Amino acid sequence: MRTAYLNTLHDLAEKDRRVFALLADNGIIVYDRFRQDFPEQFLNLGISESNMVAAAAGMANQGKIPFAYTIGAFLSFRALEFIKNDVCLQNQNVKLIGTGAGMSYSKLGPTHHTTEDLGVLRVLPNLQIITPASPMEVKKATLAAYEHVGPVYIRLGTNKEPEIYQEEYEFRIGEAVTLREGADVTVISMGTILKDVMDVARQMEGEHVNVRVINMHTIKPLDRNIIIKAIEETGKIVTIEDHSVIGGLGSAVAEVIAEYGRPVKFIRMGLQGFTQGYGTYDQVRDLNGIGHADLYNSIHNIMGG
């Protein structure tokens, strides 16, 4: 995902000199090509995330289009006040790029896991939040963020995520994508986990359970219509995310269900606290109850066993 983002940003900077890459010392090596080709459009603010966000807001106020990049956990928490007051309150055209979404940095533990950022940032007015699921979607999300005038936060995985799209599709901020049709139960997810969701859905098909899979790539604004359609057509909803079960995708979908006002079978899968254990991304997901087998069992449970 990171490579897809960097290539897209490079293309944007080449055609639009207003585009700037800002870093907080993370990713300095991977930006070598950008720094070499566009030295006047590159700024490394050092390990000072708040200053980076403040500088980005000032640049946006002068007509620039800054893309401020660092580890998501550092960006969303260390610089929160600056994101709120300098970027969102002023509705500045700043693009915030948080790498290591969810538990992508699985070997580094909870200090580097970005598993509470949605709960913190989703409440901020004017901010749009996107979690791409594949390299193609990263490219589309980056282009959409560039075209949108206003604050955008993009969450990037860092585990060489495979492509889940087999053909071109239209990406629009705030419009989720149905990856797989199904009439029995709907699984709503986002980001890296979606590949596993698709694998489980294919497995369930062999057991005569038709699983609808929705890629909620934009958590804000949320696609309420696709959720309501899924409720009416399947009556059973499962959300799964490598984020706290509080404040993230599951909470956002729960809000829609509560306002819908009719009985719906609903399971939220996510982290119940800080992440436990270290290892590969799949191993850490298994240790925290959101792995392949956990999703399979949840679908069985919501179908009545």
Task: Quickly name the level 1 CATH class of the largest domain.
Answer: Alpha Beta
Biggest beta-sheet profile: 7 strands, mixed
Walk across the major sheet and give the strand order. 2-1-3-4-6-5-10
Query: SSE order, as H and E?
Result: HEHEHEHHEHEHEEEHEEHEHEHH
On the 0 to 100 scale, the average pLDDT is 95
What percentage of residues falls in helices of 4 or more residues?
25-40%
Radius of gyration: 19 Å
Q: How does CATH name the architecture of the largest domain? A: 3-Layer(aba) Sandwich
Count all strands and give the number: 12
Low-confidence stretches: none
Separate helix tally: 12
**Domains, number:** 2
The dominant shape is globular
Structural class: alpha/beta
Topology-level CATH name of the largest domain: Rossmann fold
* Distance between the first and last residues' Cα: 37 Å
Specify the CATH homologous superfamily of the largest domain: Thiamin diphosphate (ThDP)-binding fold, Pyr/PP domains
- Beta-strand fraction estimate: 15-25%
What topology emerges from the helices and strands here?
Layout: H1 2-15, E1 19-23, H2 32-37, E2 42-44, H3 49-61, E3 65-71, H4 72-78, H5 80-88, E4 95-99, H6 117-121, E5 128-130, H7 135-147, E6 152-156, E7 177-180, E8 185-189, H8 194-205, E9 211-215, E10 218-220, H9 224-234, E11 236-244, H10 249-260, E12 265-271, H11 281-287, H12 292-302
Parallel strand pairs: 1-2, 1-3, 3-4, 4-6, 5-6, 8-9, 8-11, 11-12
Antiparallel strand pairs: 5-10, 7-9
Helix pairs in contact: 1-7, 3-5, 8-12, 9-10
